[in-house]
C-alpha cells in the first residue's frame, strides 16, 4: 500500500477534466483571479526586461505555459503575455513575430477539453506538450517566455519517509518537524530539477514568470491560510475514519504532495542553479474570491479528486466533500485569518557564460 501511494504520485497529478459542474474549468475562479492580478506585472516585466535585440531576425516567438490544465485560465495568462510582447515590439519599432504557444501538463491531462475550448480569435498557433515539467520538455534554447501559475507547489512525489511518520494526517500541517523538513527537501529537489530543465530550454535573455502560493520568510506554516485550509481538509478524512466510513490505514498512507515554499527557499535554489537572474519577486494583492464554503469545497474537489479516487475509490467523494463543506462553514474564518500569500517571481535566463543579458 505504501509503495502504491508513492508511485501514483510519480505518475503526475492533474485537475478534474471536462466541463461539468465539478470540473476544474468550472471551479477555478480563484486561480483565474490570480491570473488577472498578474496582468500588469507581466506587462511591466516584458516592457522592462525583454529586449528584442537579443533575438535578431526572430520569426516565431515561443511561449510555454507549464501546468496548463484544461483552461480557461491558461488562455488568459497566454493572452496577457502575447499582448505585452506585441506592445514591446511595437514600441521598439521591431517587426512583430508570429507566436507559437506550447501548452504543457501531465500525460493524463484533459487536452481534448483544452483544445476544444481554444479561443476562436487567438493570435497564436497552439500545440500540446505532455510530460512532467521537472524534466526537459523542449529543445535547447527554444523558448522565449515560460509561464507557470499554481503548479510548482505540487511535488513530483510524496517523500518516502512521510508515509510511515504522518499517521492521522494527509498533509504536513500539524505534523512534526521531521515531516515538514521532508516536504521542504522534496520541494527543493523538484524546483532544482525544474530550473535545470528550463535553463536548457530558455534562450539567453528569455523570461520566466512563476506564480505560486507561498509562505513569508520566517513565518510558521501554522499561520499560512493555504496550510490551514489543508489542515481542515485533512481533519475531514480523520473524521470519516473515526466513523468507520473509510479505512484508517488508507488515511495513514494518503498524503497530499503539496508544499508552499518561502521566497528565501526559492532564492537559495535559484542562486545554486546559477543560470537565472531574479528580476522581481513580490506578493500579489490578496485574492478574496474564495470566501464561500461550497465554492472552496468545489475548488478543492476539482484539484484533488483524481488523487482521492485513486487511493480511496470513487464512492467516498460525495460524502467526503459534503462533510468538508460543513466543516468550512464553521472554520473558514480561521482560513481567512491566516496569511494568504501568492508570490510573483520573474527570472531572466543568463547567457551561456551565466552572465546577465
Automatic annotation (TrEMBL):
Pfam families assigned: Methyltransf_7
Keyword Signal annotated: no
Keywords, in A-Z order: Magnesium, Metal-binding, Methyltransferase, Transferase
Biased composition (Basic and acidic residues): 1-10
Annotated spans, Disordered: 1-24
Family of this protein: Belongs to the methyltransferase superfamily. Type-7 methyltransferase family.
Matches recorded under PANTHER family: S-ADENOSYL-L-METHIONINE:CARBOXYL METHYLTRANSFERASE FAMILY PROTEIN (PTHR31009)
The protein's name in its UniProt record: S-adenosylmethionine-dependent methyltransferase
Amino acid at each position: 500500500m505504501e509503495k502504491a501511494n508513492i508511485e501514483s504520485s510519480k505518475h503526475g497529478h492533474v485537475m478534474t477534466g471536462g466541463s461539468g459542474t465539478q470540473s476544474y474549468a468550472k471551479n477555478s475562479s480563484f486561480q483565474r483571479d490570480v491570473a488577472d492580478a498578474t496582468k500588469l506585472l507581466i506587462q511591466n516585466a516584458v516592457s522592462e526586461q525583454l529586449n528584442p535585440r537579443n533575438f535578431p531576425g526572430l520569426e516565431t516567438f515561443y511561449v510555454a505555459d507549464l501546468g496548463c490544465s484544461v483552461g480557461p485560465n491558461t488562455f488568459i495568462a497566454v493572452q496577457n503575455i502575447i499582448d505585452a510582447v506585441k506592445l514591446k515590439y511595437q514600441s521598439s519599432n521591431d517587426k512583430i513575430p508570429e507566436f507559437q504557444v506550447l501548452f504543457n501538463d501531465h500525460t493524463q491531462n484533459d487536452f481534448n477539453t483544452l483544445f476544444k475550448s481554444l479561443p476562436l480569435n487567438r493570435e497564436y498557433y497552439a500545440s500540446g506538450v505532455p510530460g512532467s515539467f521537472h524534466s526537459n520538455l523542449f529543445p535547447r534554447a527554444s523558448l522565449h517566455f515560460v509561464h507557470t501559475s499554481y503548479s510548482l507547489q505540487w511535488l513530483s512525489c510524496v517523500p518516502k519517509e512521510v508515509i510511515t511518520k504522518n499517521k492521522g494526517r494527509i498533509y504536513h500541517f500539524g505534523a512534526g518537524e521531521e515531516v515538514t523538513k521532508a516536504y521542504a527537501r522534496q520541494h527543493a529537489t523538484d524546483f532544482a530539477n525544474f530550473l535545470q530543465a528550463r535553463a536548457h530550454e530558455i534562450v539567453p535573455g528569455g523570461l520566466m514568470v512563476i506564480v505560486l502560493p507561498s509562505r513569508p520568510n520566517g513565518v510558521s506554516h501554522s499561520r499560512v491560510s493555504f496550510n490551514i485550509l489543508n489542515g481542515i481538509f485533512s481533519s475531514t478524512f480523520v473524521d470519516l475514519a473515526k466513523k468507520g466510513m473509510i479505512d484508517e490505514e488508507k488515511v495513514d498512507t494518503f498524503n497530499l504532495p503539496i508544499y508552499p515554499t518561502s521566497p528565501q527557499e526559492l532564492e537559495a535554489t535559484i542562486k545554486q542553479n546559477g543560470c537565472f537572474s531574479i528580476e522581481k519577486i513580490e506578493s500579489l494583492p490578496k485574492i478574496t474570491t474564495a470566501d464561500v464554503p461550497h465554492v472552496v469545497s468545489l475548488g478543492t474537489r476539482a484539484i484533488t479528486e483524481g488523487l482521492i479516487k485513486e487511493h480511496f475509490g470513487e464512492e467516498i467523494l460525495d460524502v467526503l466533500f459534503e462533510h468538508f463543506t460543513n466543516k468550512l462553514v464553521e472554520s473558514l474564518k480561521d482560513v481567512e485569518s491566516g496569511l494568504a500569500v501568492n508570490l510573483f517571481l520573474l527570472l531572466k535566463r543568463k547567457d551561456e557564460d551565466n552572465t546577465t543579458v
